[in-house]
Design goal:
Elements: H1 3-45, E1 51-53, E2 58-65, E3 72-76, H2 84-87, H3 89-96, E4 100-104, H4 121-134, E5 141-147, H5 149-159, E6 164-172, H6 187-198, H7 202-214, H8 219-233, H9 236-243, H10 245-255, E7 263-267, H11 275-280, H12 302-328, E8 331-335, H13 342-345, H14 347-359
Parallel strand pairs: 3-4, 3-5, 5-6, 6-7, 7-8
Antiparallel strand pairs: 1-2, 2-4
Length: 362
Amino acid sequence: MNVKKVFRVIGKVLLVLLLIIALSLLTMSIVYHVKLSNVEKQLADAGYYHPVSVGDHSLNVYSCGNENGAHTIVALAGFGDGEMFLGWRQMTAEIEKDNRVVFLDRAGYGLSDDITSEITPESVVEEYRTALQNAGIQAPYVLMPHSLGGVYTTYWECTYPDEIEAIVFVDGSICFEIPEDEQLDGGIAGKLMPVIEKLGLAPLIIRSEYGEFLGKLPDEQQEQAIYMMSRTLGAHAVCNEMDHIDRDFNHIWRIMEPTDIPKYVISASFSYHTREDFINDGITADKLINVWVMPEMKDAGDDAIYEEALRIMAQRRTELAEPFYEKLGSCEVYELAGDHVIFLDKPDECSRLVKGFIDGLE
């Protein structure tokens, strides 16, 4: 057979394959955006969409529970958590009976508008405050952040302590010193997130990573939560936020000072102390690989993997968590071992702990 002819045939086959891939991605993208639009309409029809202007864009402020309740609790999302007004409700249902609960999404999250300007703790907190004021929701607030929301909460209480009645950190992020030359950005993952979302691939990733926990939601809300998280991970604001997490941890650690504002910490991520703790929670040794233990240890045996994970957790408690809690001041810590998304993993236990703390404020 003529060599040139062989190459022409191979070229045509590759071209067909590329066209098939391109058409598949285009179809997936169209289906995703149609579904996302439908989900946004469903949530708006269900009353979740309450945009409040903070200048040239709006934040979504969803208020529920007892409007005339004893406290106004403001929930602040962790990184990428665009579905908190759905996923947190298993935890907050009992709390809402006696309190007003406000789910406040920052720019790019959930149903809030996306923005292209730089995200800083200062800009986020000012927009939080403006949104609440423009929505007619007056201080003082009980702030209830998860994960990265804890960084903004710590800045808020340091800068405007008179607005804060108390704080409940639901496995909130721990700030610590990170030298400038050791600070990392979002890397390739951060740059690819908008592309992955626009192509309609984000729901596949969300299902893979969080399907076990989101499966605890009502059927319709499972899809809604997946698409809200997908939309959030593709937002410019969220990608910018990811690029500056280390910078913000370092900045907040440097400026924070102890306050006498009552604080309650539900600590989940660092709260395993024995091998049996893992086993009782259904955490097998292989689940700790790439999360707490380096992949090089995958053949070291279960005992060695558990031991290494426990060593790292103990180190982080001692070197990072305890100094942070001490610097916060007036801080009570309760260890509830579980997944970082503890409000989905163990919502009943979280509800009981949060309610007990808030009821004790009266």
